[in-house]
Fold this sequence. Notes:
The protein has 260 residues and is mainly alpha-helical. The protein has one domain (2-6, 33-249). Helix content is 52%, strand content 8%. It contains 11 helices and 5 strands. The strands form 2 sheets. It has a 3-stranded mixed sheet with strand order 3-5-4. A two-stranded antiparallel sheet has the order 1-2. Strand 4 and strand 5 form a beta hairpin. Helix 8 (181-197) runs parallel beside helix 11 and helix 9 packs antiparallel against helix 10. The longest helix is centred in the first third of the chain and has 18 residues, at 35-52. It is globular and about 45 Å long.
Amino acid sequence: MRKSLIVFLMLVLSTLGACVTNPETGRSSFNIVPEATEISMGAQAFAQVKSESTESRDAKMIDVVQRVADRITAVTGKNYDWEVRLVESNQANAFVLPGGKIVIYTGILPICETESGLAFVMGHEVGHAIARHGGQRMSSTMVVQAGLQIADFSFNDSAQKPMIMAALGAGTQLGTLKYSRVHESEADYMGIRYMAKAGYDPSVAPELWVRMGQGGQRPPEILSTHPANETRTAELRAVMKEAQALYQAAPKQYGQGVDL
């Protein structure tokens, strides 16, 4: 009975505008979380991450990260209160919280290799935020676990906080947190478009996933929430002509930028 009610409520909400449209892909998705709520939770999560991490003091690298962030965010068309932090960590990870709070871990820089590689990683994570994938994940979780009681969905609830952090793409073990395969592929597409529009050579994007796949084993794609690295590489190569056209149309071309 409860399951039937939830399904019915989902159908009703979908007819009442509980959908968001991705500005880059046109894909519509179920999302009952107001964007203002996402942004508020993103700000709280960002404050928690800053309080629990050590900010890098590498002035040269901070400048590079800030420069890439400025160029990527400028082409998104999204008027968020953008902010970026470079965090000291061996984790090869990065994320962008709702509202435009960007966190880059120093451990991912060697995999990026170049400024252009970082631009793709950052574009990918920015894509998650602009597509509001965190809100979509929270919506699905609320439907299943809370019967759409959004009023009770609070970052200040200690029991809910880990789930909210995971939905937003941040947490204590960031490398283990996953978006869905659809979200990851969508963010890859957005990321390569953003980096190209920002003037970074998009040809480095597929090779980044080749490097990410080295040195570790992954479960079969059908058992994973992430697409296989080989799939992501192939998908990026398939849209390279489109990305190169955007790169050539950019006001300035920075190539691969500096080495990291």
